[in-house]
User: What shape does this take?
Amino acid sequence: MELRHLRYFVAVATELHFGKAAKLLHISQPPLSMQIRALEDELGVSLFHRTRRQVSMTRAGKAFLQDARQILERAEQAIVTARRAARGEIGELVVGFISVADYNLLPPVLREFRRRYPLVTLSLRELTTDAQLAEFFEGRIDVGFLLPPVSEPSTESVAILREPLIAALPERHPLAHSNGSIPLASLSSEPFIMTPRHMGPGLHDDIVSFCHGAGFSPQVIQEAVQMQTVVSLVSAEMGVALIPESLQNLQRTGVVYKQLKEASPLTEIRLAWRAGDDLPALKLFVQLAQEIAEDTAGRPGATTTD
Assistant: This one.
């Protein structure tokens, strides 16, 4: 039995007329009658009562019709599902992200991706850059928001957001309530809180180089893995920090964010994935992330890059 036999049967059962059913199926009537007779022979039952004037269904035909329709519907759904899976609209995607991305690109990308592709399951993992690179190698994540440099040859990446540094100061710091921006050199004698270099050498080196340009080396008295923790330690008055601008979206009691008078280096967030990965949902995710990143280009202080 083939699906076409079921389609022929359902057409005749719907029209109760071989001529009309044949026209609907774009075939001639004699071959249709032969196919229905062959189906009945295979099943070992009569599906229709036939007279010169009328075609009606037998009890077996009525019982067979319900299942035949369900089989055809499921076959059509299987085709649709396969095509959607091939386009990346069904499946699972494991997304790694650094904490900074949670305050800029990650929320709008996730929100829009879920709206467009609700049948793709997104599994999120908050990981440092070095941890993400290891997870790519082990095949545990499919795509990730991370900090440069991304020198691992087994991955591809694209820069999707660049933004300046700002200062995070304890609320009781003398400069916290000064008018306007502050010069970076005014922080030269302050204790600094930073993330460890091996977890984000690009950001770490940008901060150190920026301070050197202002005539001093930052006195790092405490390191923290996550940027939220860096801000929390500023709130605890353990020191000051230079952070990516979007992190000011983290409203933490006891912290004041200040713009800097100098033009700072632009910190970068990259989107990375395994080189040569042809996962369809991955392609959709990367395209959407780039699209949303381009929309942020007009935001003050932020730029995107190809």
